[in-house]
Amino acid sequence: MDNPVVVRCAEVAQEAGIATLRFNFRGVGASTGTHDEGRGERNDAESALAALARRLRSDRPVALLGYSFGARVAAGLAASGGRLPGLGLVAPPLAMGAIDDIPRGPELLMAAGDRDPYCPAADLEALAARHGARARIVPGAEHFFFGKLYPLGEIVSAWLGRWAVDAAARG
Description:
- Strands 1-2-3-4 form a four-stranded parallel sheet, sandwiched between helices.
- The chain is of the alpha/beta class.
- The chain is built from six helices and four strands; from the N terminus they run H-H-E-H-E-E-H-E-H-H.
- It has a single domain, classed as 3-Layer(aba) Sandwich (Rossmann fold), CATH 3.40.50.
């Protein structure tokens, strides 16, 4: 939750007036538990999403944005859950396995750097095309977006503007 990519995405959402929740998966940072290959982490994300939803008014939209392994978990959770207005996948680790469980319907964000060995740009572009989305590729960025957090923030801000900013203004 303290990764600079995650922090930057949350900052952009907060600047737009959107509530955010960052959390560590089990076994990361000071959290308890051990890595569970995505199964238990999905439970972690479900619990976090439910906790956030309880704190918001019922008319406020709730969406998911995940980075790296978190993007894989977010896609799986979105595919099994209810209708979400937005699903953001930042640098999903496609080199480590396909992500096929992306739901139809939410406003998709798919972003990565053009130098990311874990999320090759060509793989992300193919995934986006299969889902009628556009891959957003940050020139010169690698997996951790060192020196490229500002352009990533602009991409996240534009994605939020397509589905969330109007809802936040109404709230």
